[in-house]
Amino acid sequence: MNLSLHAADIATAVATALAEDVGSGDITARLIPVQQRSHARIISRERAIIAGKAWVDEVFRQLDPNVQVIWRVSEGEWVRPDQVLFELSGSSRSLLTGERCALNFLQTLSATATLCRQYADRVAGTQVKLLDTRKTLPGLRIAQKYAVSVGGCFNHRTGLYDAFLIKENHIMACGGIAQAVAAARDIAPGKPVEVEVESMTQLDEAINADADIIMLDNFTPAEMTIAVQHARTATTHRPAGPVKLEASGGITDATLLPYARTGVDYISIGALTKDCKAIDLSMRITL
After folding, report:
1. How many whole angstroms separate alpha carbon 158 and alpha carbon 181?
2. 274 catalytic per annotation
3. Active-site choice (100, 134, 191, 261)
4. What is the 3-state secondary structure (H, E, C) of the chain?
5. CB within 8 A of 199, min separation 6: which ones?
6. Is 167 assigned a catalytic role?
7. Among 94, 172, 202, 278, who pairs with 107 as Cys (CB 3.0-4.6 Å)?
8. Which of 167, 185, 261, 274 is catalytic?
9. pLDDT (tens place) for every residue of the chain, 287 residues total
10. Which of 58, 132, 217, 246 is the catalytic position?
């Protein structure tokens, strides 16, 4: 599922970031005459996919609507080292106060998009969709999931509220897979129900319980291939069609393509959002 991006989500994230950074006021910026104006160019120090333009725009909208933001690149575009990404014109105080907050968003979301594009390119030619997880930076869930889609990967559930993911402890507490799935259907009819399984026996239980998606946890590629063939055969005649299958757990760069070639519909990878390294950006200011 791909989330819809709302202006309110961006505004809230930016307001929180500005509050923690600016606080009661930028005392260093007060060293600069209030009437002084400047021009700034923001460049990338490395190759990257750009994501997060709306967050940058919102930083300066909230901080000082008179600051002019002129973009030189498009969202989702590959950029090269030393390429100008955008330019700023306005109050010197506002440019310097908003610099770090704006670049924090852009460097983090661009890093997420860049990593996702690298992963997506590795499985190009297969039918698998790479999914993110809930392993996101606190407060940046919506922003990072947006960046995942910019990078060519896909979103799993947004949080604990929009889909069921029934794991080992849920199964134990409910008394079994069938009981857990049945309870989920009663609690929130229409919400997707996914069940995590760790064996072929549990796979059959999840199939019989009519789960929408089954997550095959820590299966080897060889085991995954067998499980996929078995599940497809067992659910071919379901009214909703064959059950969707997801691979998860212990999947590395080296094993990503072998897993993709097993025929699973999805592969979920926490690294898409938790292991990205911020893109190196720089702001150069002139009077």
Report:
1. 20
2. no
3. 100
4. CCCCCCHHHHHHHHHHHHHHHHCCCCCCHHHCCCCCEEEEEEEECCCEECCCHHHHHHHHHHHCCCCEEEECCCCCCEECCCCEEEEEEEEHHHHHHHHHHHHHHHHHHHHHHHHHHHHHHHCCCCCCEEECCCCCCCCCHHHHHHHHHHCCCECCCCCCCCCEEECHHHHHHHCCHHHHHHHHHHHCCCCCEEEEECCHHHHHHHHHCCCCEEEEECCCHHHHHHHHHHHHHHHCCCCCCCCEEEEECCCCHHHHHHHHCCCCCEEECCHHHHCCCCCCEEEEEEC
5. none
6. yes
7. 278
8. 167
9. 445 678 999 999 999 999 999 999 999 999 999 999 999 999 999 999 999 999 999 999 999 999 999 999 999 999 999 999 999 999 999 999 999 999 999 999 999 999 999 999 999 999 999 999 999 999 999 999 999 999 999 999 999 999 999 999 999 999 999 999 999 999 999 999 999 999 999 999 999 999 999 999 999 999 999 999 999 999 998 888 899 999 999 898 889 999 999 999 999 999 999 999 999 999 999 98
10. 217
Q: What is the pTM of this model?
A: 0.94
Non-local CB neighbours of 164 within 8 Å, separated by 6+ positions = 184, 188, 191, 192, 193, 194
Catalytic residue check, 205? no
